[in-house]
Amino acid sequence: QLKKIVYKRKVKVPASITSYLNKKMILTQLNGKAINNGRVYLTIDNARHTIFGKSGCNRFNTGYQLNGNTITINQAAGTLMACDEASMKLEQEFTTVLDKKTFEIHAAGNSVHFKDPVTKAVMLGFEIPSEKDIWSFIDGKKWKLIQLENVGKDYGKAFIRFDTKNKKVSGNGGCNNFFGTYTAKAGEIIFSALGSTKMACPDKETTDTEFKMLQHLSAATVRFDVAEQTLNFYKNDKLIMLLGMEQ
């Protein structure tokens, strides 16, 4: 029985234990098999105590408990889209391994392994892309709006483009051009000084799209990740914009 607290001391956690938190991790190994299609990825969000990502076809999220290098993952919930056979098969195998399981996490450099606590076999292997790699992929490309607030359709001229050298952002809301600056850090983009032209839009639908898009970007911070061909913006764990890379 505790009688008295003499003193409290912070214990330094080794960097290798927490280096993978709040970073996108792309699946590269599953049950001993190499995976190289980039369709499965996740982020362990330390602030919200959630894991979110894509399981091959659908997006998912779940809770977890972390104790040292041991993680216990709750049963995941996700969207219910149907995809091609290969993606669905990969998703089934991945979710079967992940759901309601406990793993030992071992991180070295950009590699992260989820191991069976008993056999020590690697069940899931991940690679963490560097921020430089991610922004090199985003830079200069035209990212067309294909989904806004869970509504997917053709949004016409609406797009966004980043100039990483000058930290500038530009695009079109569907009617008017917009421009501004941004800063980026650890999976977040902070937009600032956003301005736009003032032309009248041809119809109410285009006007509403432009208003929502600029409202989400104006003086705002969004969390983002990059999938195979999409750039995704989130607020409070909610997907607000999905932009597809124009070929």
If you had to describe this structure to a student in words, what would you say it looks like?
This protein is an alpha+beta fold and 247 residues long. It has helices at residues 15-18, 85-98, 131-138, 204-217, and strands at residues 24-30, 33-34, 40-45, 50-55, 59-67, 70-73, 77-78, 102-108, 111-115, 122-127, 143-148, 151-152, 159-163, 168-172, 177-185, 188-196, 221-226, 230-235, 238-245. The strands form 2 sheets. An 8-stranded antiparallel β-barrel has the order 1-3-4-5-6-8-9-10. Strand 15 (177-185) and strand 16 form a beta hairpin. The mean pLDDT is 90.
Strand order of the largest sheet: 1-3-4-5-6-8-9-10
Would you identify the regions where 5 or more consecutive residues have pLDDT less than 50? none
Global Rg: 21 Å
The shape is globular
Category by helix and strand content: alpha+beta
| Average pLDDT score | 90
Largest sheet entry = 8 strands, antiparallel, barrel
Helix content class: 10-25%
Short structural summary:
This protein is 16% helix and 45% strand. The protein has 247 residues and is of the alpha+beta class.
